[in-house]
Amino acid sequence: MRQFRAYLIEQDGQRQHKAGFVTLDEGRLDAGDVLIRVLWSSINYKDALAGTGKGRIIRRFPCVGGIDLAGIVEHSAAPRFKPGDQVLATSYDIGVAHHGGYAEYALIPGGWVVPLPEGLSLRQAMALGTAGFTAALGVQRMEENRLKPENGPVIVTGATGGVGSLAVDMLAQRGYEVVALTGKPEQAEWLKSLGAARVMLRSELDLKNIRPLDKGLWAGAVDNLGGEVLSWIASTMKPWGTIASIGLAASSDLNTTVMPFILRGVSLLGIDSGYVGAAIREHIWARLASDLKPAHFERLTREISFDELPQEFDRYIAGQAHGRVVVRVSQ
For 295, phi and psi rounded to 5 degrees? Predict the structure, then answer.
């Protein structure tokens, strides 16, 4: 039986976190229809929380981490895939309750697998990963709610993160005036190189005195922070503005009033990329290979080896990462 390397997250008898590289065989893989030789994965903040035990992410122990993977089909019981196909898989239970992308092989249910769209390489697919899929889903939903470049500026919070930086790039390409909000002044020029027209620092905001309705500034917003920042965004939206609520890096709380929603017609859209159905998922990936394909993959992406994975988790937890990190799992 074939053996391979994997990064396994476990708990010991005292429920203490334990994670590291191990050798597994195919008999240890979870149930699935498509056996994939994994070439690339990526790091999301969720992966760092799971890998370090800093967050309650893993729902079943032991579990191979990595919520994203891309590679080549080795065997398939799903009729739509055949050996040699290039595919990707993200979200669902991958890397949290089903062995994930931090392994040289993965066995995945066929309904979770997406054919690699023409126009993307496997490496580019992982430079996007869950972060890119989520950003693109947010852009699509905002535009379905009548967001257009001529409506006014769009603010992106947590702009140096994976979702934020990709959203900056995608929106700028589509002709929007993008304002990037960040707590990292040293990354201001990098954000401008991705297309941000202006960079705002979180330290500039007075989040202790948020008015129910303030001056309307934004036609759209991609929010990765939640908490007081999202409250401030709601109060400063233009009439008929659209907010895509994507993350809670600052807080899961939201203290606001109904006034932006009933007096300015503001829409607050929740973006959940975890369990989107196959039809929408493949449509979004097709857009990521065409009109939403980032223009600055190289500026956005840094590559690491499989061996470097654990120390990269520490960088994420310490707030030192920006953009996207792709992991070369195997040759």
Answer: -90, -10
Determine if the peptide bond prior to 62 is cis (ω within 30°): yes
> Could you tell me the CA-to-CA distances from 314 to 45, 69, 95, 136 in Å, in that order?
10, 21, 18, 27
d(CA 103, CA 56): 21
Compute the average pLDDT of residues 254-263. 96
- Give the integer Cα–Cα distance in Å for 102 and 5: 9
Bridge partners for 200 per DSSP: 181
Please state the pTM of the whole predicted model.
Answer: 0.96
| Exposed/middle/buried for residue 30 (C-beta within 10 Å: 0-12, 13-18, 19+) | middle
**How many residues would you count in the chain?**
331
120 closest CA partner among 254, 272, 284: 284
User: Mean of the pLDDT values across residues 57-72?
Assistant: 97
CB contact at 8 A, 43 and 327: yes
- Angle between the N-to-C axes of helices 45-52 and 309-317, in degrees from 0 to 180, rounded to the nearest 10: 110
Average pLDDT across the chain, whole number: 96
Q: Which residues contact 67 (CB under 8 A, 6 or more apart)?
A: 44, 46, 47, 90, 91, 94, 95, 96, 100, 101, 129, 130
CB atoms inside a 10 Å sphere around CB 272: 11
Q: What is the pLDDT of residue 122?
A: 98
Positive/negative CA dihedral, 267, 268, 273, 274: negative
Q: Which residue in 68, 82, 83, 81 sits closest to 38, CA to CA?
A: 68
- The pLDDT value recorded for residue 310 is 95
